[in-house]
Amino acid sequence: MAVLGLELLAEMVARPPRTTYKTADLGAPTFLVDEQVVCRHDFTVMNRQGHSLVCSHYVPMGCKHYPVVVYAHGNCGSRGDADVHVNLLLPCKISVVSFDFSGAGLS
């Protein structure tokens, strides 16, 4: 019995349950951060293994040349975890790209 518990614990650490959500859970594609209109542009890229990675780019409306921070979520996270960083970085004129790793979230 104890061995099964340890195996389950090891499996949860090595392969935690996949975070599930809908794109709508990310909120509206246009919203305000510090009185600035921000747009979330969702897109998909293909990795070398042929897997689709679902991504979001958060950028102030009308701005095309902001530097960007790429947010990579933790072991059992998703691109939605970038919210805190979006709210912190956009007022500093830094856009944010977040993505779901292959096998995580919607990827």
SSE blueprint:
Layout: H1 2-14, E1 30-33, E2 36-46, E3 52-60, E4 68-72, H2 83-89, E5 95-99
Parallel strand pairs: 4-5
Antiparallel strand pairs: 1-2, 2-3, 3-5
Protein name: Protein phosphatase methylesterase-1
InterPro entries: AB_hydrolase_fold (IPR029058), DNA-binding_regulatory (IPR052920)
Task: Write up what this structure looks like.
The protein has 107 residues and is an alpha+beta fold. It has one domain: 3-Layer(aba) Sandwich (Rossmann fold), CATH 3.40.50. Helices cover 19% and strands 32% of the residues. It has a five-stranded mixed β-sheet, covered by helices on one side. Strand 4 (68-72), helix 2 (83-89) and strand 5 form a beta-alpha-beta unit. The longest helix is centred in the first third of the chain and has 13 residues, at 2-14. The chain is elongated. It starts with a helix and ends in an 8-residue tail after the last strand. The model has no long low-confidence stretch (mean pLDDT 86).
